[in-house]
Design brief:
Blueprint (H helix, E strand, L loop, with lengths): L6 H12 L4 E5 L6 H4 L8 E5 L5 H5 L8 E4 L7 H14 L1 H13 L2 E7 L26 H21 L3 E6 L2 E2 L10 H10 L4 E4 L5 E2 L2 E2 H14 L5 E4 L5 E2 H12 L5 E4 L14 H4 L9 H24 L5 H7 L6
Parallel strand pairs: 1-2, 3-4, 4-5, 5-10, 6-9, 7-12
Antiparallel strand pairs: 8-11
Helix pairs in contact: 1-8, 4-5, 4-6, 5-6, 7-9, 7-11, 9-11
The chain binds nicotinamide-adenine-dinucleotide.
Length: 335
């Protein structure tokens, strides 16, 4: 798996290891964290390979291994990072996808590319079905991420057809859950993190833009469903079913966590999309369903953040030796 030290990747690794699979986790730790994979380190079925997937020479190491499945999740994430790591986003999804497709081809492995709802850009059609081509400005402020993923999709589809490789693409919509950092700038961790710290919560524009939210356990189940039962060459949306405005999400977070605080309405630092809402009927035909409610997921993250922040405080006071060590001993909410 490429991108396994990230938020989604580490949750997927846990699921694959629990099924008895052997997992190579390839990651260059751009946005991933060693602490996300610390719990797997002693598992003989797990191996960490620090590697930039855009580096062809480095990836040639992987050609010596045999794989039955290749999940490609490696790409820096986070809207603020589009300005900082845009080049890395473009390279990991273009050259990186090409390098990993070659690795999959060598083993005759199934290949899954994780794309994004942002491949639809600022959509004019609701909900977005996989057949919708999207509304993307190729040189717009978010294009380094949007076009990176669109290129990765094209590369995956073309290479699969040309070389007879079994490939599929998943367009992931906003996902949240255990394993996100309290410093993560994505909307749910940012809201909960700021409320815990007594800081105002930034809301961009008037907060009327919509999103859907999916718990990472549901996404992990969906990714495996598509890998195991999806059709070669097809694209599948996976995301939450209910649209919610960001303003209403702020109220839902306060209600679920019992926290109080204020919103700081402001202009978006880059540009925003008015809405996102996946048509998930295609993946549902494979037997996948969203199971975890937003309310339940929000309570879970709140509990995890409190636990992580308490550990940090204890580490700073010298009560425990190191955060890495104590994370394993703690009772962090885990799926
Ligand atoms: N979380 C979401 O809501 C969401 C939504 C849409 C799409 N996605 C996609 O799902 C994938 C995983 O996202 P995530 O939320 O876990 O983000 P993440 O940032 O936590 O994980 C991405 C991982 O990829 C690694 N990485 C980045 N560039 C790399 C490179 N060149 N070589 C090797 N490793 C590299 C990072 O270090 C990180 O561990 C990404 O491709 C992302 O675009 C996520």
């Amino acid at each position: 798996m490429a991108g396994g030290a990230g938020f989604i990747g580490s949750n997927l690794i846990r699921a694959l290891l629990s099924k008895g699979m052997i997992v190579d986790c390839v990651d260059d730790l751009t946005t991933g964290r060693q602490s996300n994979i610390a719990e797997f380190r002693r598992n003989p079925a797990f191996r960490f390979i620090k590697l930039d997937v855009a580096n062809a020479q480095g990836c040639s190491r992987l050609l010596r291994r045999h794989y039955s499945q290749v999940y490609h999740l490696a790409c820096p994430t986070g809207v603020p990072n589009i300005e900082i790591l845009g080049e890395e986003m473009l390279l990991s999804s273009s050259t990186g996808t090409y390098n990993l497709l070659k690795v999959a081809r060598r083993s005759g492995a199934q290949f899954l590319f994780t794309s994004t709802a942002e491949a639809y850009g600022d959509p004019e059609i609701f909900p977005q079905a996989e057949s919708y081509a999207g509304n993307v400005d190729p040189v717009g402020p978010r294009s380094a991420y949007e076009e990176a993923k669109r290129f990765g999709e094209a590369m995956t589809r073309y290479y699969g057809r040309k070389h007879g490789l079994d490939v599929r693409i998943v367009r992931i919509f906003n996902t949240y859950g255990p394993g996100m950092s309290p410093n993560d700038q994505r909307v749910i961790p940012q809201m909960i993190g700021n409320l815990i710290n007594g800081e105002p919560v930034p809301i961009y524009g008037d907060g009327s833009q919509t999103r859907t939210f999916l718990h990472v356990n549901d996404l992990v189940a969906g990714l495996q469903t598509v890998m195991e039962r999806g059709t070669n060459g097809e694209v599948y949306n996976i995301g939450g079913s209910k649209q919610i405005t960001i303003k209403a999400l702020f109220d839902a977070v306060k209600k679920a966590t019992g926290l109080s605080g204020t919103a700081a309405f402001q202009d978006h630092f880059i540009s925003d999309h008015r809405g996102r809402w996946p048509d998930t009927s295609k993946v549902e035909k494979l037997g996948w369903r969203q199971k975890i409610s937003l309310d339940q997921g929000l309570r879970e993250i709140h509990a995890e953040f409190l636990s992580t922040m308490e550990l940090r405080r204890r580490v700073e006071k010298g009560v425990v030796a190191s955060l890495g060590k104590s994370r394993n001993q703690s009772t962090l909410a885990r799926p």
